[in-house]
TrEMBL record:
NCBIfam families: small_GTP (TIGR00231). The keyword Nucleotide-binding applies. Keywords: Nucleotide-binding. Belongs to the small GTPase superfamily. Rab family. PANTHER family: PTHR47978. It comes from Acanthosepion pharaonis. The keyword Nucleotide-binding applies. This is RAB24.
Length: 211
């Protein structure tokens, strides 16, 4: 049976200006506009998609870059509904952005409790050049991650450091859950249609996998 692939909805959340849009631009288009284009706040949300291959399976990431401004907070709920994964971003040079990450984590816990969380510290290139500008220590982010079962990545949209790694890790985690359910169904039933499969554990991703 042909491999039909896996679709994953990924949402980016975080305080305004932490670097969400730059992260998406680097991942989807391999470009950094920060030095050439004036910064503009995202209004509502922006969408992009990318296909990749994980362990021989085709995976499509549908990525929603949401506005970080407080006036758009209620609107953001529309975009992270039914997300399989959420990247909660913070700025490594701004301690308040990690504090704000707590808000988005709680939002997800209250509204999409089964969504898998990832913490992403942005602007690693700034820290590499000016170490004294670091306001968020990795240990503080990891402590927050440990409390919320979220892995921590530190990235640079300017250099691309760790960005592919972050998204590939999300896809791999998601696919592992789907394949685990396929295995469990095979062991529990002699007859089922893989095209009807809905992954539900541990964070209810929505996908179909055939092999």
């Amino acid at each position: 049976m042909a491999n039909k692939g896996v679709d994953i909805k990924v949402v980016l959340l975080g305080k305004s200006s932490v670097g969400k849009t730059s992260l998406v631009e680097r991942y989807l288009h391999n470009r950094f506009l920060g030095d050439t284009v004036p910064y503009q706040n995202t209004i509502g949300a922006a969408y992009g998609a990318k296909k990749l291959n994980i362990a021989g399976k085709e995976v499509q990431l549908g990525i929603w870059d949401t506005a970080g401004s407080e006036r758009y907070e209620s609107m953001s709920r529309i975009y992270y509904r039914d997300a399989g994964a959420a990247i909660v971003c913070y700025d490594l040079t701004d301690k308040s952005s990690l504090d704000r990450a707590n808000f988005w984590i709680q939002e997800l816990r209250d509204n999409e409790e089964n969504c898998k969380l990832y913490l992403c510290g942005c602007k690693l290139d700034v820290i590499a050049e000016y170490p004294s500008k670091r306001q968020v220590e990795r240990g503080a982010a990891e402590a927050l991650g440990d409390m919320n079962n979220a892995e921590v990545f530190e990235t640079s949209s300017k250099t691309g450091e760790n960005i592919d790694k972050l998204f590939e890790h999300i896809a791999s985690d998601y696919l592992t859950v789907c394949l685990r359910q396929v295995k469990n169904l095979r062991e529990s039933s002699k007859s089922f249609r893989l095209t009807d499969l809905q992954c539900k554990e541990p964070h209810k991703p929505k996908c179909c996998v055939s092999s």
